[in-house]
Automatic annotation (TrEMBL):
GO terms for molecular function: protein-disulfide reductase activity. This is Thiol-disulfide oxidoreductase DCC. It comes from the Bacteria. It holds the Pfam family DCC1-like.
Length: 125
């Protein structure tokens, strides 16, 4: 694998809106792809991982989830994006980031761009 890959839930409109923002505004080298169209085996990811949180797979095979994945995406973008990326990796911020991420993930159907499908488990979509 040459480039990092950022994997998100393409069935969720909120997640897709966030991914589109990333592609338009954050100059990461990563391929941004919905897990439904990703080769999970090649990336070394499981269905459980991608259903639980966004994933970052580095060129070296390093895998990070949730806010840790977002931090690596931001750091990869460089320039001023590296600052919030490093902040997310700062231990006290990271301890708060996971509960915040889980809250957003659990309420994404209520957020801008979210739809009722965002609240359903994958098996029911």
């Amino acid at each position: 694998m040459q480039k990092p890959t950022f994997v998100y839930d393409g069935d969720c409109s909120f997640c897709t809106s966030c991914a589109q923002f990333i592609e338009r505004r954050i100059p990461s080298h990563a391929t941004v792809v919905p897990w439904q169209f990703a080769d999970l085996d090649r990336l070394g990811l499981t269905l459980e991982q991608v259903e639980e949180a966004v994933q970052w797979v580095g060129p070296d095979g390093t895998v990070a989830s949730g806010p840790d994945a977002i931090a690596l995406l931001l750091r990869d973008a460089g320039r001023f994006w590296e600052v919030p990326g490093r902040a997310l990796q700062f231990k006290p911020v990271g301890l708060l980031a996971w509960p915040a991420y889980r809250w957003v993930a659990g309420h994404r159907h209520l957020l801008p761009g979210g739809t009722a499908a965002c609240s359903l488990p994958q098996a029911q979509r």
